[in-house]
Amino acid sequence: MYSGEFAEPRLLHSKGFIQLCVDKSATDSTGSFLSVGTDGDVWIWTGDELDEAEYYAKNIKGRTHCAIAWHGNDVYIGHTSADNQTGIQKSTVSRFQKDSLRMIAPITTFSLDLSSIDISKSGKFLAAGSIDHVLKIINLETGDVIRAEADGQIMCVSFNSKDEYLAVTATDGMLRVFDITFPKGELPEPVTIRICSRIVDIEPSNSKLQLCWDPSGDNLFVPALGCVKKFDKHSFEEITKFFIGSNSYEMFSVCCVSSCGTYLASSTMDGLICVWQISTGDLLTCSKYQINGQPKVICTMFWHRSLRDTLFFADTEEHICSLNKCTRKVTSNECNSTDLDLQCARNKATANFDDDENSQNLDSIKKSYGFDEEGHFRGIYDEGEKNSHIFTTAKPLTSYKPLVVPKAFVTGSTPEHRKQRYLVNLSLNFLKWNQYGTIISSYNGDDGRIEVSLILY
């Protein structure tokens, strides 16, 4: 499988979850983006290649919650604020001015830390979720707030581009899709779909279930076990799945769709970044993200809007990195296995035959590999050094025979398979038996001794 090219990772913020975000209004043409962690800083990045990108760090005078949304000149951040009169701290979503990061006004509060924030493309709606299981949808034009609760901590919130639906994932393993087109103050019951089993807590060792919509707002993509699932907004039935392989059990965590709507990228908990072509479902690249040989957990990712075929992402160990050349079309001549090490070993052991007759005769092929007509391996034999350039050894495989476990018997009796062996000595008693062996008690009447021995199979 073809792999993209990683840039040299750079350090940012502190260890733990980090969130990257771009302008949701799509009015920014510079390719700049924002990053936030839990250290109280918000970094404003330029839209250059990662090794040339510059950032401007702004501190908001409080602990940030790794939850941020950007729309035009406004930035919405989840943070801990303290009441000036009482000194009581509370989790708050506030609006900040983008360039100066000066707080304009608080929007809403929660009892515990914020976990996700999103703003609609029009800038009308703001959604915020918390680890206290509470979801709030705020109409920024009227100030109306709709409150809903889930059976788990809110993990991700995301509006579609047409201000029609809000998709939410939580640690109970459920996807909830809310219709936000209803009149003032009304919120119907959401469409609820199970995505995975319950997640214990929001932490780096667990999937973030960070979903995304395509630019048209018609299709929803959700990371799951072994695949990324695609849902249609009209019925919210599963349309298709994007796989690595038929036997893959990788847990996907973060996914994002390119601004052109052509490519889907998703990362696994083992640092594997996969890119598919959405229209065909073809897997284009699989790239293993490692630092010093160790895979890292990716916690946020987006497609760069001004750099061609480039992903920017951050891991939970304070690194930011980019991946480019990740949309190459895989041809039929390239291998399609995601296990790169195994495939490499296969390639080294593969023999290239130019004999047309052998390629068409199944018996000849079997014989050349050391098998008889029935498919039993008989060893590889040198026939006039015909294929000496292909095989260098002719050692037959060592067959393995599984352990034969004897049938059970009543304690104190002699098992059937031991009767002939101990028929001459009827003083032997089999006290205990299991799959590992037997414990035998023997009595010698001459000296009155009792011997206990363990016989292992």
Helices and strands in order, then pairings?
Elements: E1 5-6, E2 10-11, E3 19-21, E4 33-36, E5 41-45, E6 55-59, E7 64-71, E8 74-82, E9 89-97, E10 103-110, E11 114-119, E12 125-130, E13 134-139, E14 145-149, E15 154-159, E16 165-170, E17 174-179, E18 191-194, E19 212-213, E20 219-223, E21 227-232, E22 238-243, E23 252-257, E24 263-268, E25 272-277, E26 283-288, E27 290-291, E28 294-295, E29 298-303, E30 310-315, E31 319-324, H1 340-349, H2 356-360, H3 362-368, E32 429-434, E33 437-444, E34 449-456
Domain WDHD1 first WD40: 10-321
Protein name: WDHD1 first WD40 domain-containing protein
GO molecular function: chromatin binding
Structure overview:
- The protein has about 450 residues and is mostly beta strands.
- The chain folds into 3 domains: about 5-340, Methylamine Dehydrogenase, Chain H; about 355-400, no CATH class; about 415-455, no CATH class.
- It is about 5% helix and about 40% strand.
- It is built from 3 helices and 34 strands.
- It has helices at about 340-350, 355-360, 360-370; strands spanning about 5, 10, 20, 35, 40-45, 55-60, 65-70, 75-80, 90-95, 105-110, 115-120, 125-130, 135-140, 145-150, 155-160, 165-170, 175-180, 190-195, 210-215, 220-225, 225-230, 240-245, 250-255, 265-270, 270-275, 285-290, 290, 295, 300-305, 310-315, 320-325, 430-435, 435-445, 450-455.
- The strands form 9 sheets. Strands 1, 2, 29, 30 and 31 form a 5-stranded antiparallel beta sheet that branches. Strands 3-4-5-6 form a 4-stranded antiparallel beta sheet, with no helix packed on it. A 4-stranded antiparallel beta sheet has the order 7-8-9-10, with no helix packed on it.
- Strand 11 (about 115-120) and strand 12 form a beta hairpin.
- The longest helix has 10 residues, at about 340-350.
- The radius of gyration is 31 Å and the shape is globular.
- GO terms for molecular function: chromatin binding.
- It comes from Wuchereria bancrofti.
- This is WDHD1 first WD40 domain-containing protein.
- One of its GO terms (biological process) is mitotic cell cycle.
